[in-house]
Amino acid sequence: MHKIVALAQGFNGSIGIYVKDLRSGKTVSLNADTIFPTASIVKIPLAVGIMDKIGKGELSYHQELVYNDTILYPGVDILGSYKNGEKVELSKVLMLMLTTSDNTASLWLQQMAGTGTRVNTLMDSLGFPELKVNSRTPGREATRAVYGWGQMTPRAMASLLENIYRRQLLSQAASDRLLRSLNRNYWDGEALSQIPPYAALFSKNGAVDASRSEVVLVRGRKSEYLFCIATKNNKDQSWERGNEAWVLTRKLSAMLWDHFERDGWKPAVGAEMYE
């Protein structure tokens, strides 16, 4: 615990950290029950909402959808490059949301999940009232002004990921579908960059100007552990590799890997040129 406190000391913003050894059940936390913005991490609850609808027969995993460019979220998303009227499977839209954090895909899936209100009700029923969708959710406009797209506590978001991993929320097939996508995170330059490529990693990150956060479940050769680091009110709002919150995230990830595995692995010298 003292190492985590020391690591967070002097951070220019608000920070919350939750760590759990999945084999012993031991946890370490720092402001783990404080509310933080999710940014794109809200896409995990959205994905659970979609899989819940599939499980109830209201949607089909491979059903064909027709893209309507009125849902376009301006940016560099892959789905946003589709032409109006093009066909795409629901499974591919879900994959894009989780692996490349495609915002156009995410807005579409939020609509299909039954709005943010339905996802919030589902999170409540699953035991995660701290996890909320704010954007495009009636009655949550004021909260959205504070937290953005969604809100979470580090403990709750990490626990949601753990429950997916343990197949305790959805069917085994649905859980496996989500885990395969969460195991292919394109945005691997921060926490994931400090963990060997042979480890199994299930993760999602989120970033806006004043908030950078990440939730990661790691299965190494000798260990299984989980952590979530969340930040808000960040003074450093830069988008370079040296951003204070991202540097802290990499240090935490490296420290945890060394603690749980102690195999001496370090990122290759010069690896940052690829990140």
From TrEMBL:
UniProt catalytic activity: a beta-lactam + H2O = a substituted beta-amino acid
One example GO MF annotation: beta-lactamase activity
Documented EC number(s): 3.5.2.6
Domain of life: Bacteria
GO biological processes: beta-lactam antibiotic catabolic process; response to antibiotic
Enzyme class: hydrolase
InterPro entries in the record: Beta-lactam/transpept-like (IPR012338), Beta-lactam_cat (IPR045155), Beta-lactam_class-A (IPR000871)
Limits of the Beta-lactamase class A catalytic domain: 16-231
Signal peptide residue numbers: none
PANTHER family in the cross-refs: BETA-LACTAMASE, BETA-LACTAMASE-TYPE TRANSPEPTIDASE FOLD CONTAINING PROTEIN
Family indicated by similarity: Belongs to the class-A beta-lactamase family.
Name recorded for this polypeptide: beta-lactamase
Organism, as annotated: Cnuella takakiae
